[in-house]
Every structure is written in structure tokens, then in C-alpha cells.
Amino acid sequence: MQRLYDFLRRHPTGVDSFWAVLLFGISALVTAEESDRNALAAVGIAAVLCLVVALRRRAPVKMLLLATAAGVAQLVTDTPQQLADFAMLVIIYTVASGTVRWASRFALVGGLLAPLIANLRWSSPDQGVNQHIIGTVFMTVPFVLAWVLGDSMRTRRAYWAQLEERAGRLEKEREQQARMAVTAERARIARELHDVVAHNVSVMVVQADGAAYVLDASPEQAKQALETISGTGRQALAEMRRLLGVLRTEEGGEGGEYVPQPDVEQIGDLVEEVRGAGLPVDFQVEGAPRPLPSGVELTAYRIVQEALTNTRKHGGPDAGASVRLTFFDDGLGLLVEDDGRGAQHELYESGGADGMGHGLIGMRERVGMVGGTLDAGPRPGGGFRISVLLPIKPGGR
Hints:
The protein is an alpha+beta fold. Helices cover about 65% and strands about 10% of the residues. The chain is built from 12 helices and 7 strands. The strands form 2 sheets. A 5-stranded mixed beta sheet has the order 3-4-5-7-6, with helices on one face. A two-stranded antiparallel ribbon has the order 1-2. α6 (about 100-120) packs antiparallel against α7 (about 130-215) and α7 packs parallel to α12 (about 360-370). The chain is rod-shaped, with a radius of gyration of 40 Å. One of its GO terms (molecular function) is protein dimerization activity. InterPro entries: DUF7134, HATPase_C_sf, HATPase_dom, His_kinase_dom, Sensor_HK_TwoCompSys, Sig_transdc_His_kin_sub3_dim/P.
């Protein structure tokens, strides 16, 4: 049944042609039975009116003018009303539901005048004035109803078109916000990397200045300073491979204090802090803990922090969470789950509940920076689940 309905919707002219042929056949039979002197003219006018029905959606304005011409031909040839005149109601409805306003007004005026003209042209001498008036009113009502229904359909289509346009605009805005969130998160991570460079290079510059200062007066001290520079440079290079950065205590501040970023060992402190805020958290560590690249450790800490924050915001009053760290030979596995209501997946994707570009977008950017993978979504039994695998060897883009 649905296939038939879809087929009919795809071929509106074919449907209209079917009804036009049916209307013409019935009109021809009725005209043949009457067999009056205007039978040939009546059949010709019926054929024109049925053509109006067949092509009403393909060329509505032209068919309106053709129907008007057929009505004038009826008056000229003295052909009384017939069944095919139903096509005038159909074309009035079609034009009123369209977007050509002058044609809609023309159809309304024609619908109001046609019954009056027909009553004057083919009036019966036995009818009084009151009967003429009542007959005209009754004939006018279908024309007015056809126009009103068509105009209501036009208004409804315009309303739905406006809704679709608005939905498309909102979708584009949502995509733009998501792109802005990605850009903001990348910029934030870039600032972290920039701070690492500035911090380590500044230390090396200070040591080099010290070596230059004592080079002539105390070569032995200069040698020690150079050895210190060498060791510090190697250490800084190793940290640059491992660290995402050192952030200021206040974002965007100038001359602020530099502090090292959290690592995996501090996830336990984070869990305790969240428990103190009223959210039950089950924390487990599997495998043998060992030092990891600081970029990996910072990423793991931030993901746990973001996930628990989202659980606290959106999980509901009775929500609980679990955090599991798994140390593999080649990486770190991270699983964060909660059993609460959970925020909508679209909310995470569009930049997070805080509107600051966090959420899944931020998580994916962080994980991508270290070459890891992230899988997130609602749990089958309720709540939300975030699974992350972070490799030890640096990867990414």
C-alpha cells in the first residue's frame, strides 16, 4: 500500500489524467443521453474542461485561463451547465493553493461571478426573484469553499516550508558551532604546547647565560654549566615528546605562575574530590602502573575530569560512576561509565553543556593529539560510557 501511495505521489499528472478521463467519459454519456442540439458543443467544452483537470498541476495559470475560455464558450453557444463544469472548482482550488497571487484573486472573482452569470443566462421563467437569489447563493458556496481550501493549503505549505528552512538554518548553525568548538579546543591545546616550549627554552637560556658569564673567570664552572645545559636540553627534549604542556594558573593571564599539569597519579585525588562532592565513584587500576608520556597522562586526566563533570551535571541525583585504568604493554586503557540519565549525545557533540568547546569534541581532539582512539555513547542499560585507548608511542597528526 505504501508503494502505491509513493508511486501516486511521484506521478501527480498521471493521477489527474485518470480522473480527467473518468470525468470526460461520464460527461459524454450524460450528453449523449440528452441528445440536444448543442450536444457536439457540450462534448467539446467537456473535453477542454477535462484537459484542465489533467494539466492543472503542470500549468495551473494557463489551465485557469483555458477554463475561463470554456465558460465563455458555454455562454456563447448556449450550452447549459454540465458535469464537466466540476473542473472549474478543481482549477480554482489548484490556483488558490499556488503562489501566483493575481491568479488566485482572478479565480476567486470568477468563482463569485460564474453562478450569477449562469443563473441569469439559463434562468427559468417560472422562478421568482427569491428563488433566483437562493439558487445563486447555493451555487456560489462550492466555488468559495474551493478557493478557501486552496488558500488554506497554500498557507500550510508556506508554513512547512518556513519550518524546513528554519531547521536547515539551525543545522548549519549547529555544524558551525561544532567547528568553532573544534577550533577552540585545538587553540587551547596549542597554548599548552606553546607554554611547554616557552618554559623549557627559558630554562636553557638562563643556564646558557650563566655558562657564558663564568666562561673566562672559571672555566671549570663553565664546563659544569655546559654539562648542565646538555643534560637540561636532553631532559627538555624528552619532556617535549611526552608533555602536552605547562599551563598558567589563570588562562590568558600575563606573567602568571607556571605549574605542571595533572598526571595519571592524580586521578585518584580527582576521584576523591568528586566523591566529596556527593557522586559515588568506583575507581580501579589494573596492570602494573609505570611512568607514561606526560601527554598521555594529561589526556587521561582531562577525560576522566570531563566525564565525571558531565555525570555530575546530567546524571541525576542518584547517579553513580566507575573509572577503570588499565596499563597495557603498549598503552593505557581508560573506561568511564555512569548509570544516570546522561546528557543527550548531541549536546556532547555540539560542544558540551558548558558551551566552551568541551565534551566529546574536546575529548576527541585530545585523544587524536596523542594518536589514541575514543568510543563514546549511551549504555544499553542507561547512562553513558566513554572508552579510550592511549598508545605509549606518540602518534596522531
